[in-house]
Amino acid sequence: MQINMSGSVMSNRFNYYDLDPTYRNAFGLPLMRMTFDYKENEHKIGRHAAGVINEIAKSMNPTRMNPAVARTDPGRSCPTRARTTLAARSWAPARRRAR
């Protein structure tokens, strides 16, 4: 059995999209870049959620349990800071096939 939880990140001025000055698509247009960083509120929510999930799981008296941990905590393998260029999609119009 698995117990899962998902959350959201409140918007703030430190998480934003902009145009990447370095990378361009096939049409020569700049690619979209995302800058994202978890703030203390997200770390607190993640720790709280992991604690609640662990309490729920323990109340079911499992024979084996892998404790939940907050993925947003610094030092985890999951990156907490992302500055990514979105190369798969861009704002350029799609090419039409010649008939």
Primary descriptors:
20% helix, 99 residues, alpha+beta, elongated, disordered C terminus, 3-stranded antiparallel sheet
Question: How is this structure best described in words?
Answer:
The protein has one helix spanning 40-59, and strands spanning 16-24, 30-37, 81-86. The relative contact order is 0.23. With 99 residues, it is an alpha+beta fold. It has a 3-stranded antiparallel β-sheet, with no helix packed on it. It has one domain (16-86). The longest helix has 20 residues, at 40-59. It is 20% helix and 23% strand. Strand 1 and strand 2 form a beta hairpin.
Summary, kept brief:
The chain has one domain. The chain contains one helix and three strands.
Number of helices: 1
**pLDDT under 50 segments (min length 5)?**
77-82, 86-99
Q: Which percent range fits the helix content?
A: 10-25%
Query: What would the principal axes of the Cα set say about the shape?
Result: elongated
- What's the total count of β strands? 3
Strand proportion: 15-25%
Whole-angstrom Rg: 20 Å
- Structural class from helices and strands? alpha+beta
The SSE order reads EEHE
Distance between the first and last residues' Cα: 54 Å
Strand arrangement across the biggest beta sheet: 1-2-3
Largest sheet: 3 strands, antiparallel
